[in-house]
Structures are given as structure tokens and as C-alpha cells.
Amino acid sequence: MLLHQKIKGLEDFFKRQSERKPKGVYFYRVNSYDETILEFIRKYYDLAKREGAIIDKNIENPTADNIAYFNEIIGDKYVHGPGFMAEALKKWLPRIKDYQRASIADGIYDTLEVLRRQGKNIDILKNNFIRIMCWLYYNFYNIMEKLGNDDVPKIIFWGNVNFSELSTLKILSNAGADIILVQPGGDSKYMAIDPKSEYSIDLGMGSESFPAGFDLQWLLKQYEEDKSKRLLYSNKSNAVANTNAWLSGDLFEDLKNTRRGENTRFFYNMFARINGCDNRNTYVNNLYLLYQDLKKANRSIKVINNKITNPSVDEIAKIKRGNYANENQLITDLKKNINLKSNTFVDVARDAFVDTMIETGKLMNMDLNKMMNKGIYILCWFQRYIPDLLGNTDIHSPAPILIYFGNVETDTESLFLNMAAKLPIDVIIFNPEKKEDKLTGERLYEVHFEETLKVNEYPTDGSNLSMGTMAYNAERDLDTMMYSDTGMYRDMQFSKANIIKLSTTYEEIGIYWKQEARFRPNFSTVDDIVNIPVMFAKISGVANSDTDTYFQNIKDLLTDTTLIYKNESIYGRNCTVAAGVPSFFKNGRLDREGIKHSQIYKYDYLRAETQDYILDKLSELLRRKTIAGTGQNGTEYKIITIVLDLPKEILRFIQSFDFTKCPPKLIIVNTTETVISLEDSIIVAFLNLIGFDIVFFIPTGYDNVSKYYNSQIMEEHIIGNYLFDIAIPDFNRLRSVKEKKKSFFSRLFG
């Protein structure tokens, strides 16, 4: 009899008996899941399939024919003792060795003795004896001779065992078999049978529950899918990557090193990231000198600063694709888009793309549409950067270099960089600010420095080279300490914002109107994005029919950052869709780069951050479909045209908008029956997303502001009677109540 031992690691299961210290067998329960557990189960299953036994859900009871054959060989007699059982085994399983027979006989006796002590009669003991003997013969016959050998046979049981099954497995384990119970439903049913875990041990590994539907059929399906995935690859080994194994650790010198290894089967490349900087006073200069050294060595270099810009409409149009029934069809077809001058690298690149798309499938939960979208992006970026890098490269030439400068913001960028690193290309990422990002990869080599430095882009041009003095860098450190998570903000600190609708009473509009955003309820900053609470309201009627007070209240809302329109249009002209606009919005996506490079683009004089912010909010307005008709009758093109043609006074307010301070204002006073135009409705909805406080004053109470909106996007406050045909005064001449001249009696008596 072999003793049950505890493993030190999963690899112990695959050691021969002579390699185990101490010697013994393993009987474990698997109750939880992760990728490591999945790989273990798959490897264990392979061994059980070749030299063991696999039980799916239960061991079927012997049939009448099985029992009849047993009685023919053993007879109808039953004696409750290990001697009888050993003799029966000699007839029933004549090929097993004596020591195996003794161990199994003792195990059967111990199992039946438990039942006898529970008060079971001799007939029940006999029936259980026959069941166990039949199971050994019909379900485990092929491992009986292997029990106790140096190569330990494997048994895998999938599901929940009953007492008889567990007892039989224990008999086989004691005789020399490794056993795992895979329990996707957890351990509760098992513990009802063996509450002290005397028969088996809980593996206690895995970080989550098994996924729904995880059973033996699921595993077999995975095998078939893996088999079909292998067919996606070229299976050519004329160019094999040796990534990072040759590194010395000094990545600057390693990049310049062109003698990396002697084995001609490999191409030697680098996939590395440097976080932070070792010396802020010399960092930028060192980067510039590195670039110059690499150029002098005739190394081909591409530099990506801060992020990989989205593919243009033209780039996407060049990617050939179709309709696919499954993941493998999609990958097989999309990889045909990869073509290079050197046939040596085509198969390497296509195989790298297959790896990338399989990983994409895991991220996207096998959603074919999402997989295809990411695949198209990756192919567009491949065509943008890789063919030029590999254009004149032999497998043994010094590797071209792809430099990514900044933090990797998206999973798609991470996938692309991992794919590029599987080609004969050095891929190096510089992240001097040490910002957290999306880049991960088992093959990624990382270097970490304590110091950080804000650098806008990789220095490739000496004429634009800028380096900070020690005092300058110290000032930046102080700046960081003062304005990071302190509730204090420097001017124009943030370049992105989200809008939160601030629901208020009518009276609270006056309270919050002139208040800085950072002091309003629900203001916050998360990941360098400001959440701005703004007001968007319609005021209907006139309180107490008092027009003097009504207009005085409006005047009190006027500030230096307030635009007011009185019975007039904001846009002021008829809108015709500008030429080329339809090409800016396709498949629900705004082509930002196409817009910036078009002739109709007028905003290039604004700060780059402001331009990006405007395009972000334009994209959001289109995505939300706030304006009726968006995506149906060409209204989306009118929206783009109007947002790209805003009045100058509005652009100035957007340009100077500091998100933590008082938001700019828009007041529209309409005392007529005129319905706000589509053009003005677009501008109002857009400025709401920008972060303007917006208030409509409608004394008539007419519903003349919501015609072109798909939903109620503003609050309405009815404050009094509806009044008609009232004249709007000149607010510049309207004297504040506190400025009005007091009467004689007022002055006399205070």
C-alpha cells in the first residue's frame, strides 16, 4: 500500500515514483479555476487518456450481463474477509502482481468493513463487493497491471463522487494510482461524504470559480479548437525569435549592440520598457544621443509619441475582410492582408498576427465583431509602421527599432506592440512619467527608476531639444506635490472633462451660478479627467408676474464669461453641409485626423488640447444621438458642419475654459413663439457637453426649445404666470436693485 503524500507544486504530479520525495501517490480535489489550473488539467488529462482512466460524471453500475459473468468466474459465494477477497481477485484479475492483489484486497475489505459497522447486512456487503469488482474489471482493467510501477498511472474523475465511487478510487490510489477529482460545482457534496478529507486533499489553488459549462465535453471541445488553431500557423521555423535572452541589462547599450548571438536559426530582438529615469538632468540629452548613435549606425527607426493615432478611413478601407462564421475563419482571412517585401518575414508576421488575434479573442470573449474591429486596427498600424521598418532587412541584419514614447493607453496598442515584438524588430517603450498603462506581456523586460520626468515627446531633433535645469525640475516636483490629490489645482491643469448634470431647485441656480466647479456638489478628478457638475435648465413663466424683478434676476446672472441671446439665433445663418463632411463619419466613428487635415478645418489656431476636446465632445454628441435624426437622415453631417463652424465668441470661451473654475455660461431669453432652430439646438447640446452652464428663460412657457432633442435633456422650473409679448430691456442700462436711488424717506429713515 502506498501512502498519500502532499505535493509541493503541480509539477509533482508528473514525476516518476523514483523521483518523488517522499515516495507515494497523490489524491487531490480541484475546486477552483485559473489559467494555471486549466493547463494542469489538460496535461493531466493527456496522461490519463494514454495510461490511465477517465471517468465522466459517474461510474456506471454493472449490467446484468456483467454480474452474470462475475458469478460464472467467482461463483455465488461471499465471505467477509481479506483472504476470500484476495482469492477472488486472483481468479478475476489473474494478471496483477501479488503485492498489488494484497493491497487491493485489503482496500476492498476496509471499504466493506465500514458498511458492516454501519449495520449493513451480508447481502448489502456482497452487492457492494460485486460492484467494486466489476468496476475494477470493466472500468480500470487497463491500469491494473500498472499499479505500483515507477510511471504512476493517472485517474481523472469529472464531477461529484458518491461513497461507493470514492471508496473504489481510494482502493486504486492506495494500490499506486494518482487521482484528481475535478469538481466544477465545488466541494460541498464531497464534504458530505468525507467531512474530514480523509480520502483526498483539497488542492486549494485557483483564484476563481469554474466557468459555466466547464465539463469534460468543454475540455474536448478545447482540444479540437486547439487542433484547428494549429492549422492557422505557417509551421515554418526558418526564423525563430530570441527575445531578450541576450540582454545585458543596460538597455541603451543593448539597443546599439548588433552582435547578439551566433546561432543563425534565430533573430535576436528586444522587447523592453524603461519606467522613470535614472537622472532627470541628463535624461533628455541621453535619449537624443542614443537616437543619433542609432541613426549613424544606419538603423531603421520609427518613433510613436504618446499614443498610436486611430486609423484613418482610407487606412481602414485598404483592409480586405468578409463575413465569418467563427474565429478561425476570421483569422485565416484577415492575415492575408499581411504582405512584406521579404518572403522570409511574411510567415513570421502572419504567425505573430495569429497569436495576437487568439489573445484578442480571449479579451473580447470571442465576440467576432469586436475581434474584427481590433484586428483591423492592428493591421492598419502594421501597414503604417512595419513594412518600412522591415523593407531592407535580412534576418541577420541589425534589427530595426520601434520606439514608443509615453504610456500605452489601450489594450489594442498593447496587442500591437506585443505583435511587433515577435518580429525581427527591437520594440522599446520609454515611460518617463511612470504612468500606469495597459501594456502587458510575458516577454516584456522592464527596468524601473525612481525619478520621474514629464517629457512631451522623444527628442529626435536637436533644434527642438529642451532640457530642464535642476531648479526647473525641483520646481516641477513642488508643482506635483501641491497639485496632486490636494484639492488645489494649477491653471489649465486638465485637458479632459466629463459632464455631470447638476439637478437643482430654481433658487439654487443663483447660488451655484457664479461658484467655481471645484466647489460644486459631485465635483471630482479621476485619472486626469475632471467631472464637472453643470446646470442645464429651462425657466418657464414669471414669478408674481413681476417683469422688473424677472429681468433683474437675469441681469444678476450675467458675468464676464456669459453669452446671452435675446430672441435671436446663435448660429445666425442657414447651414449647408460642407463638402467632404460625409467622409468624416463612417460606421459610427468620427475620423478626427481626416477632419484636422481637411480644408474646412478652422480650429488649428486653438490649443492642441482644446482642439482634441472639441472633437471628443463632437464624437460624444454623435454617439449619444441627442439630436433627433442622428444616423437616420444625414443630420449627423449637419451636426459635424455646425460644430466645426462655431461663432468666434463661443470658441474663445471654450479656449479659455479652466475645468476646475467657473464654467462659461449661455443664457437664451425667448419671449416669442419662435421655436429654437436645429442649428441652435445642436450648438446648445454641444455646449452642454463642453461644460457650459445653460439656462433658457421662457416667460411664455411655450415648448419651443425641445423640438430637435430625442429626450428631455434639461430641467424645467415653472416659477409663475405665463406672460406674452413682453419687451426685453437693455441689460447694460438696467440698474441693479441695490443701485437704484433711494427715496427721501428711505434715505431719512434708513
UniProtKB/TrEMBL annotation:
User: Please, which domain of life does this record's source organism belong to?
Assistant: Bacteria
In Pfam terms, one family for this protein is: YceG_bac
Domain Putative component of 'biosynthetic module': from-to ranges: 42-200, 258-483, 504-718
Q: Which protein are we looking at?
A: Putative component of 'biosynthetic module' domain-containing protein
List the source organism.
Lachnoanaerobaculum gingivalis
